[in-house]
């Protein structure tokens, strides 16, 4: 029998369908998921802050010699939680959301709501060099998905609400509602129309209001722009764009390189120990790698590079500006290493904020080199720090508009809009030509699970091979006689193609009705002519485990066939017909664009 809650839910849904239009209800839901995603972001911030303050006041932090063991402790706690409670391997936050949108109709398990609220703070609070944005977006997306399921919202609207949750989370963390909307459009490949813009706007505003309600006027970057853009600096911003592009390529390749290296370690315990020890050593020599790194960025923006660098083994040389430049460049190099090592070792977190840290260090390094190289030029170090962040975001995430609007909103104005556009566009164009896909999308693209702004490709991604496989074909065997084939298969089939399989159900060929038509009435051939006489190879094969719908469509296009066999685990399971594939494509296209 249905519970009282289920009965109330049913009554509410009936009332809603009668009194509230789908459009209005979507707007109401966008406000709700924006608020809840903002609340998840605020919760993550406060948990991390609590852990960091507790450790700073505790015995461990007071002893520098024990500083390096903190990442191992944090990763161990995450490992225990994942093994005994979560019981699934942690996935990259944004990539897992993109996969759920393309292959699971936006359905995300409820446990992902609280998993990120536990695993990410343990990772970052104990020194893991990742960011909170990814976990905040993942938690908000899980909240949105499950609210959508509860209210029986269709898959297309549920996907829009997941994007709304990401906008709410970003707006709450950075207090930058416009950048939050742009991020959702660029990363989740939404069509920027009124249908999507208004829900995103409502969710973004809700996220910002949640942040203001719980945190007041507290902002991540307590910085006021004091130096405007000067035309004479244009050349240096172009050079910064090129520099951030190469840094973005390095960041991305380092990520996949370290992930591949850790994949060779046999067990999670080995990954934990190797990763935790490596992070600890890096933190000992480069303390700013600890945690997210917002304080590091703020110190650079205020011109306090000594405070930004913290206490290092090189303090006796810190008065030399070139030592400072070398240390800051070291942060540029090792932030990517520390972040990827944290994730590969089993930690949780995102890449967005580490990207900003790396960009801020690179921009500051370039400004210091210009100012102290004796070439007669002087540039604003704070401006280069900000624009360096934009360059890395544009390059690493392939999100130039997000980079531009985020930094513009952080600075409280658009005085740096021109250099932001120069550096971000150059970084994006170079990186996009060098690397087709981002950290978020590479594995999804490889498996054919990536939604893009290309409608044709997105529709194919949303389609499922299972929906177009037909199994009502009569199989025959190579040693079967022509007479047996005619009586047992041809006479009982409505199809004109017959798959030939062996005793293990492996496909060895096909026979078309046209292949045997001229022999069908020659009874003298019935007993002494085998099926293998008429069979031939299929023009192409569809492999269930590895062929995406894009690949399937290309195989039909290149082969010119009307039917292609599907192979799963080495066995024949059915055919896909071109007519059914095109019908399914048209239906999905209507659903996608309607």
From TrEMBL:
<keyword id="KW-0407">Ion channel</keyword>
<feature type="transmembrane region" description="Helical">
    <location>
        <begin position="317"/>
        <end position="337"/>
    </location>
</feature>
<dbReference type="InterPro" id="IPR046342">
    <property type="entry name" value="CBS_dom_sf"/>
</dbReference>
<feature type="transmembrane region" description="Helical">
    <location>
        <begin position="160"/>
        <end position="185"/>
    </location>
</feature>
<keyword id="KW-0129">CBS domain</keyword>
<feature type="transmembrane region" description="Helical">
    <location>
        <begin position="235"/>
        <end position="258"/>
    </location>
</feature>
<feature type="domain" description="CBS">
    <location>
        <begin position="469"/>
        <end position="531"/>
    </location>
</feature>
<feature type="transmembrane region" description="Helical">
    <location>
        <begin position="344"/>
        <end position="366"/>
    </location>
</feature>
<dbReference type="InterPro" id="IPR001807">
    <property type="entry name" value="ClC"/>
</dbReference>
<feature type="transmembrane region" description="Helical">
    <location>
        <begin position="386"/>
        <end position="407"/>
    </location>
</feature>
<feature type="transmembrane region" description="Helical">
    <location>
        <begin position="113"/>
        <end position="140"/>
    </location>
</feature>
<keyword id="KW-0812">Transmembrane</keyword>
<dbReference type="InterPro" id="IPR014743">
    <property type="entry name" value="Cl-channel_core"/>
</dbReference>
<feature type="transmembrane region" description="Helical">
    <location>
        <begin position="197"/>
        <end position="215"/>
    </location>
</feature>
<protein>
    <submittedName>
        <fullName>Chloride channel protein, CIC family</fullName>
    </submittedName>
</protein>
<dbReference type="Pfam" id="PF00571">
    <property type="entry name" value="CBS"/>
</dbReference>
<dbReference type="InterPro" id="IPR000644">
    <property type="entry name" value="CBS_dom"/>
</dbReference>
<keyword id="KW-0869">Chloride channel</keyword>
<feature type="transmembrane region" description="Helical">
    <location>
        <begin position="24"/>
        <end position="44"/>
    </location>
</feature>
<feature type="transmembrane region" description="Helical">
    <location>
        <begin position="270"/>
        <end position="290"/>
    </location>
</feature>
<keyword id="KW-0868">Chloride</keyword>
<dbReference type="Pfam" id="PF00654">
    <property type="entry name" value="Voltage_CLC"/>
</dbReference>
<feature type="transmembrane region" description="Helical">
    <location>
        <begin position="64"/>
        <end position="82"/>
    </location>
</feature>
<keyword id="KW-1133">Transmembrane helix</keyword>
<dbReference type="InterPro" id="IPR050368">
    <property type="entry name" value="ClC-type_chloride_channel"/>
</dbReference>
<keyword id="KW-0472">Membrane</keyword>
<keyword id="KW-0813">Transport</keyword>
<keyword id="KW-0406">Ion transport</keyword>
């Amino acid at each position: 029998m249905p519970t009282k809650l289920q009965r109330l839910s049913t009554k509410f849904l009936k009332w809603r369908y009668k009194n509230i239009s789908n459009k209005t209800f979507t707007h109401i839901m966008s406000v709700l998921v924006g608020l809840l995603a903002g609340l998840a972001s605020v919760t993550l911030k406060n948990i991390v802050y609590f852990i960091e303050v507790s450790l700073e006041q505790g015995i461990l932090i007071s002893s520098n010699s024990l500083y390096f063991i903190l990442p191992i402790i944090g990763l161990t706690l995450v490992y225990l939680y994942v093994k005994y409670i979560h019981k699934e391997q942690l996935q990259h936050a944004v990539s897992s959301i993109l996969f759920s949108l393309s292959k699971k109709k936006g359905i995300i398990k409820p446990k992902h709501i609280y998993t990120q609220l536990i695993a990410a703070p343990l990772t970052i609070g104990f020194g893991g060099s990742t960011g909170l944005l990814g976990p905040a977006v993942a938690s908000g997306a899980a909240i949105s998905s499950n609210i959508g399921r509860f209210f029986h919202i269709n898959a297309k609207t549920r996907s829009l609400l997941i994007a709304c949750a990401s906008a709410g989370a970003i707006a709450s963390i950075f207090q930058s509602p416009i950048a939050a909307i742009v991020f959702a459009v660029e990363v989740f490949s939404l069509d920027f129309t009124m249908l999507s813009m208004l829900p995103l706007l409502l969710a973004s505003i809700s996220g910002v209001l949640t942040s203001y309600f719980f945190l007041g006027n507290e902002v991540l970057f307590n910085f006021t722009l004091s130096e405007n853009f000067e035309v004479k600096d244009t050349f240096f911003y172009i050079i910064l764009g090129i520099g951030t592009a190469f840094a973005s390529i390095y960041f991305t390749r380092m990520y996949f390189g370290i992930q591949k290296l850790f994949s060779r370690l046999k067990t999670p315990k080995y990954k934990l120990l190797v990763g935790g020890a490596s992070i600890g050593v890096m933190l000992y020599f480069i303390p700013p790698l600890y945690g997210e790194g917002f304080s590091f960025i703020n110190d650079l923006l205020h011109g306090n590079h000594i405070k930004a660098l913290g206490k290092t083994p090189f303090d006796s040389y810190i008065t030399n500006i070139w030592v400072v430049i070398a240390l800051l460049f070291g942060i540029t190099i090792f932030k990517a290493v520390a972040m990827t090592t944290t994730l590969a070792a089993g930690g949780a977190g995102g890449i967005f904020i580490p990207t900003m840290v790396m960009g801020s260090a690179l921009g500051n390094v370039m400004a210091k080199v210009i100012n102290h190289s004796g070439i007669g030029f002087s540039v604003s170090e704070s401006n280069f720090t900000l624009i360096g962040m934009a360059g890395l975001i544009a390059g690493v995430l392939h999100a130039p508009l997000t980079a531009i609007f985020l930094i513009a909103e952080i600075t409280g104005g658009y005085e740096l809009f021109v250099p932001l556009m120069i550096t971000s566009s150059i970084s994006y164009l170079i990186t996009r030509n060098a690397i087709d896909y981002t950290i978020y999308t590479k594995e999804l693209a490889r498996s054919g699970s990536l939604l893009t702004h290309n409608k044709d490709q997105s529709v194919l991604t949303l389609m499922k091979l299972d929906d177009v496989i037909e199994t009502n074909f009569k199989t025959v065997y190579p040693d079967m006689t022509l007479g047996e084939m005619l009586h047992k298969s041809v006479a009982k089939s409505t199809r004109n193609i017959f798959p030939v399989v062996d005793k293990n159900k492996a496909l060895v060929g096909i026979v078309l009705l046209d292949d045997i038509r001229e022999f069908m009435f020659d009874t003298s051939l019935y007993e002494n002519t085998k099926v293998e006489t008429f069979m031939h190879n299929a023009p192409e094969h569809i492999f269930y485990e590895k062929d995406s719908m894009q690949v399937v469509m290309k195989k039909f296009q290149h082969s010119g066939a009307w039917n292609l066999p599907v192979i799963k685990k080495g066995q024949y399971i059915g055919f896909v017909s071109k007519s059914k594939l095109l019908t399914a494509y048209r239906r999905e296209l209507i659903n996608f664009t309607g």
